[in-house]
User: Which sequence fits this backbone?
């Protein structure tokens, strides 16, 4: 059996198992999505948003890209953010990175990878901004700290966006979170509220 056919078989088995356990599951899911959360995470296959926080399909709206970046010229990410905030009326925007992020590690190194180097330039700029703090750390700790700094920077970028500013002017209830996930133990750590950081900028 080819790898693709295997996935289709897995899907059929999963669908049948869900219908057996909860016959109305797909009927309810098809009617509408009404998530309270937007998850902006890394594309890494080891970081599945729904499973990490124990939510079902339909409970969380997801955008993923390499190294969970929120760049003010990335219309893909901004379109997801706007739809989540303006249309779905999510109450929480979670930016979640993870330790051992390949994108972050690639940005910290000197190797060239091609097109993605342009994308990772945002992380290189952030590393330069924090070069004094990072310079005293060993390679492992530098990578871990850079993953944390990147998450906080991207959550701050969400906070600075016109989408969030406009929502707050309308009186919309909205909280932004900076989280980091450990691949070693499956736990999420809250790195704090961007609005508190921004108030000291």
Assistant:
């Amino acid at each position: 059996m080819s790898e693709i056919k295997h996935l289709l078989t897995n899907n059929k088995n999963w669908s049948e198992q869900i219908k057996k356990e909860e016959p109305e599951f797909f009927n309810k899911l098809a009617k509408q999505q009404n998530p309270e959360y937007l998850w902006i995470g890394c594309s890494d296959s080891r970081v599945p948003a729904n499973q990490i926080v124990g939510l079902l399909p339909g409970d969380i709206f997801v955008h993923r890209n390499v190294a969970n970046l929120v760049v003010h010229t990335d219309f893909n990410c901004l379109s997801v953010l706007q739809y989540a905030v303006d249309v779905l009326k999510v109450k929480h925007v979670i930016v979640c990175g993870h330790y051992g992020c390949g994108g972050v590690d690639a940005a910290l190194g000197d190797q060239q990878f091609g097109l993605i180097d342009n994308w990772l330039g945002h992380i290189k700029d952030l590393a330069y901004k924090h070069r004094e703090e990072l310079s005293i750390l060993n390679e492992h700790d530098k990578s871990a700290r850079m993953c944390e700094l990147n998450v906080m920077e991207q959550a701050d970028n969400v906070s600075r966006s016109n989408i969030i500013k406009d929502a707050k002017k309308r009186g919309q209830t909205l909280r932004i979170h900076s989280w980091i996930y450990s691949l070693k133990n499956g736990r999420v750590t809250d790195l704090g509220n961007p609005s508190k950081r921004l108030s000291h900028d």
